[in-house]
Amino acid sequence: MFERFTDRARRIVVLAQESAREHGHTEIGTEHLLLALVREGQGVGVKALQALGLPLDAITGRVVDRIGSGGYNNDPDHLPFTPAVKKALEFSLREALALHHNHIGTEHILLGLMREGGGVAALVLTSFGVDIDQVRGRIVEILETFAAGGEPDPAPQSPPTVFETLSRDLRDEAAGIVGRQPQIARLIQVLSRRTRNVALLTGEPGVGKTSVVLGLAAALAQGNGPANLRHRTVRLLDVGELFTDPQHHGRFTEVMSELIGDLRQATGLVLFLDNALTTVRTREGQAEALAFLRPVLGRPGVSVIAAATTAEYQRWDRDPGLDRLIQPVPVNEPTPGEVLEILHSARHRLVEHHGVSITEPALVAAARLARVHLPGHALPGAAVDLLDEASARVRSEPASAGDPPTVTRTVVERTAAASVPVPGPTLPHDPSVWSMS
What is the structure's pLDDT at 70? Predict the structure, then answer.
C-alpha cells in the first residue's frame, strides 16, 4: 500500500511517529495521524478542513485534550499502528480507488480517518459538526479547481527497489571501450545457450574483466547481438555494498530476500556480479556471493555474468549445483598493440581529470613499466594506473606559466621507479572473504 503514497502522505506517517514519541505513546493512533496532517499544513486534506471552516489550532487542541501524555516508552524505535489506524489506511486506499486515483494523498488519509469512525481523529472531527460526505465534497471541489494547474499533491515516483539501490546501469559507463571483441562475442555466445549459460569471467587483477562487460553493454545498447539479448539493460550488482553501508548491517537475510524477489520479477536484464567467488560469511553460515543468487540463475528474463580472479577460480571448492550452470570465459592480457590502443582511449579521461598533457612516448613507457609499478596486476589496468599516478605527480608539482604540465616518458619512468609495494595487513585476513557476522 505504501508504494502508492505521495511524498506528502509519507511525510504524514513520519510526523505521526514523531507525535506518538513526543506524547510518550507506545502506538501510532488515528489521533497522531490527524495531528500530523494538521502539523504538515499543506496538501488537499488540510485545505478541505480549512474550506469547511475548521480552525487547525482548535483541532490540535481538542486532540491533545483527549489523549494527554503517556508513560515512558522503553522502545521508542518500535511504534506499531493501532488496529484503528490500519483500518483507516485501508479505507484511505478504498477512497482513492473510488475517486479513480492511483495514489494515496493527504485527502485520502483524511477520508480514511473519518470513515474509520471510532478513533480519536473521527470523534474530534465530527465534534466540529462535519461528516464524511461534506469532507469528500470539498475535496472533489478542490481537486477540480487544481485540475487545470496540475495535481497539488503529486503522485509519487516508485521508490527504488533493493536491486536498484545495490546496482548501477553500466550503459552510462560504456563509452570509449575499445577492443575486447573476441571476449564480447564469447560472452554473447554463452548467454545465448540453453544450459551452462552463466558466464564466469576469469583473469588476473587489472586484465579488464569489467571492460569486457562494458563493451557488451555498449553493443546491446546499440542494438547489436542476437534478438534474445538485444537492448537488454546491463547492471552491476555491488554485493560489497551490503557490508559497507551501515543501513544494511544485521539485515543480510532480509535484504537478500528482497533482492531475490526483485530479480525474479525482472525482465530484459543482464546482471553482472563482480567478486562472484568471494566468500560471504553471515550468521547463518558462509557461501560464495554467486551462490546467494542461485534462485535466479538460468531464469529466462535475467542473464548472469560473474567475474573472479584466476586465483579465486582455482581455489574455488566446486559446488556441483553451481558448476552445472557456469561456463568459464578466460580473459587474457591484450596484445601490446591493443594495450596502446586502450591507453589512447584512457588518455583523454586522464587529461580531462588532471589538466595535463600526455605524450605518446609516455603511453609506450606506461605499457612497458606497468608491472614495476603494480606487481601482480595485469595489463592494461596496471598501465592505466601508472599513467594516473604520473599525471597526479606532474599536477602536484609547481606549475610554470603557459603550457599545461606534461607527462613525458621520463616522468613515467621516475614514477615507476618510485613505486613502493604496499605492505600487507599485519593481522591475518583473507581478502576474498566478506563477513557480516
Answer: 57
If one counts the domains in the chain, the total is 3
Side-by-side strand order, sheet with 433-435: 285-288, 279-282, 433-435
Positions of the chain with pLDDT lower than 50, given as ranges: 72, 74-76, 148, 150-151, 154-156, 422-431, 436-437
H or E element, residue 114? helix 106-116
Is 318 found in the same domain as 256?
A: yes
Q: pTM (2 decimals)? A: 0.60
Rounded to whole angstroms, the Cα distance separating 189 from 101 reads 47
Give the residue numbers spanning the domain of 345.
336-418
Q: How high is the pLDDT of residue 243?
A: 64
Q: How far apart are CA 2 and CA 216, in angstroms?
A: 37
Q: Which of the 8 DSSP states describes residue 418? A: H
Report CA-CA distances (Å) from 352 to 98, 348, 357, 389, 394: 56, 6, 9, 15, 14
In a domain? residue 425? no
Those residues whose C-beta lies under 8 Å from the C-beta of residue 64, and which sit 6 or more positions away, are: 35
Asked whether residue 55 is assigned to any structural domain, the reply reads yes
The Cα–Cα gap between 211 and 290 comes to: 20
Query: Is 138 found in the same domain as 99?
Result: yes
At 36, which helix (H) or strand (E)? helix 30-40
